[in-house]
Design goal:
By secondary structure, the protein is α/β, with parallel strands linked by helices. It has helices at 18-29, 42-54, 69-83, 106-127, 154-174, 201-206, 216-227, and strands at residues 9-12, 33-38, 59-63, 88-91, 136-140, 180-186, 238-241. The protein has a single domain, classed as Rossmann fold (3-Layer(aba) Sandwich). It has a 7-stranded parallel sheet with strand order 3-2-1-4-5-6-7, sandwiched between helices.
Length: 247
């Protein structure tokens, strides 16, 4: 365990599973106290909390639907109130709705934009009440935002591409406060939602240069670096952690 993030407090949205859980655990391993949000699965969120506490760090699970801006803002404020401060915001929660343009209706469009675009904006805005100089905002995008290799990904790709604008705009706006804002685009990653042994895994792996899926820990390592003091001169960046998927 390192001490890079000692005395820091992080909030990871969607931190009860998959990439989000991997990020929450890595930040705790590096010394941070960590709050995480979840939408439904309180049991899985509690498991991550126990893992963080086993590392000697404080942890907090907050139920919050990313489609509800009041809940998103409340999760940020509650993190700062109960853990004493907020230094790192990781916008990870997302929905992945796939379908042809004429198959996805207004409800799917509104849900995707609400969770994947509006929620990171609302969370960042709320975080500014608490982040001090040197704070960190890191959003989790997707390789699909840069290379949609299958049909049916238009809505999701559009929503993730919006995070590029959020990242670059905020980086410029918050630079004078030494708050860095960056975007990490994972490639195919072995999670419950996209297992490395799934029916399309061989084809998806073939699009990468390294020929395999990432582990959540691979994505978390980059997030941990961007959250650390050593990355204070990195802002407005889009970092592809995708095994060469977009090369």
């Amino acid at each position: 365990m390192t001490t890079t993030l000692n005395d820091k407090v992080a909030l990871v949205t969607g931190g009860s599973r998959g990439i989000g859980a991997g990020i929450a655990l890595r930040l705790a391993q590096d010394g941070a106290d960590v709050a995480l949000t979840y939408r439904q699965d309180a049991e899985r969120a509690a498991m991550v909390v126990k893992q963080i506490e086993a590392l000697g760090r404080r942890a907090l699970a907050i139920q919050a639907d990313g489609a509800d801006p009041v809940a998103v803002e409340g999760a940020v404020d509650r993190t700062a109130a109960e853990l004493g401060r907020l230094d790192i915001l990781v916008n990870n929660a997302a929905v992945f709705l796939v379908g042809a343009l004429d198959e996805l209706g207004s409800a799917e469009v509104e849900q995707t934009i609400a969770v994947n675009v509006r929620a990171p904006y609302v969370a960042a805005r709320a975080a500014l009440r608490h982040l001090g100089d040197g704070g960190r905002i890191i959003s989790i995008g997707s390789n699909v935002g840069e290379r949609a290799v299958f049909p049916g990904l238009t809505l999701y790709a559009m929503s993730k591409t919006a995070l590029v604008g959020l990242t670059r705009g905020l980086a410029r706006e918050l630079g004078p406060r030494a708050i860095t804002v960056n975007l990490v685009n994972p490639g195919p990653t072995d999670t419950d939602a996209n297992p490395a042994d799934g029916p399309n895994a061989a084809a998806i792996s073939g699009f990468t240069a390294v020929g395999r899926y990432a582990r959540p820990a691979d994505i978390a390592a980059t997030v941990a670096h961007l959250a650390s003091p050593e990355a204070g001169y990195v802002t407005g960046a889009v970092v592809n952690v995708d095994g060469g998927f977009t090369s």
